[in-house]
Amino acid sequence: MALRVNIWQRSRLVLLFVLTIALLGLGFSPPAKAQAQGDLSLLGPALPTNFLGEDQSPNPTEINLGRELYYDKRLSKNQDISCNSCHQLNHYGVDNRPVSPGHKGQLGARNSPSVYNAAAHIAQFWDGRAADVEEQALGPILNPVEMAMPSQEAVLAVLNSIPEYVDAFKQAFPTESNPVTYANVGKAIGAFERGLVTPSPFDAYFAGDESALTSQQQRGLSLFVENGCVACHNGTYFGGNSYQKVGLVEPWPNQKDPGRYNVTEQAFDRMTFKVPSLRNVAETAPYFHDGSAKTLDEAVRRMAHYQLGKDLEPDQVEDIAAFLEALTGDLPADYIQPPTLPVSTAMTPEPDPT
Fold it and tell me: What Å distances lie between residue 172 and 9, 26, 178, CA to CA?
């Protein structure tokens, strides 16, 4: 099944790329404003209010529990790192470092992507190794470089030592006889992350408000499509919905990380990564899986060169970057407010710096 999906995704990307090139080859160049309006068909549907399934409704007790777990540093071995340490919700879900420090200051191998809008992506992590945010939330807790908890049992020992957490799990999962489970940690954090939505000026423009984007941003949108950026960065999230080889036209300078190949062991996945969403991209520097681009302008230039074989003019880069700034959304200030965490007891394990 995974192989069939992968082939379908690649076929879709190839078709989009071919159509883009074909339109350019035919001299398709309508006025910028009209073209920008027409481009919207590739960049929808509209942003939802949450990332739950059609038959689901938010569970406030589960969301509240997930918020507490997201901010709780006691889920790390030395009790000094939480999900929010690397994915800072008041900084658009990132820490603005090339790679993030973990247990004992160890550095991760890849740039920490934003958690905002991530629940809608095709998969999680740069290499897509987790199917959803519920699965993704559990990975860093046990990763020896990140939060470094030695086992699931160690995590549950912390939670079970805190009566407020035990009660919160019972309320969030009322049909379960033993609700304090590692799987439910992921479910609760995932429930919280499915509400991390950031509506932006572009969404107002998509809904019909032409004044939501400046004339420069509208030019940038047209250039974004004209130059083929939309072949990969398409849909509601401007990416996050497919995998692509980095260095598609020109070899990527840093070949150390083979990307999705580590997951599939398929030769065609070497140097392939999940296409990142461009929502909030103006706030999430540095860029790419290796954090190698410090500025948005640099990221635009490098993508054009390595992925499209184009060297853009400075004014084109400025216009595209201006358009990407229109994807900066409003943070849900009340939703992400750090909670008052349950209090430790004498039974709560002590921090372990080893």
Answer: 36, 57, 12
